Amino acid sequence: MAEADKPKNFAPKEPHKLNHPKDTPIDLSHLAKCNGNTPSYPTYVAIKGTVFDVSGNTAYAPEGAYHVFAGKDPSRALALSSLKPEDCRSDWEDLADKEKQVLSDWFTFFSKRYNIVGQVRR
Question: pTM for the whole thing?
Answer without folding.
Answer: 0.89
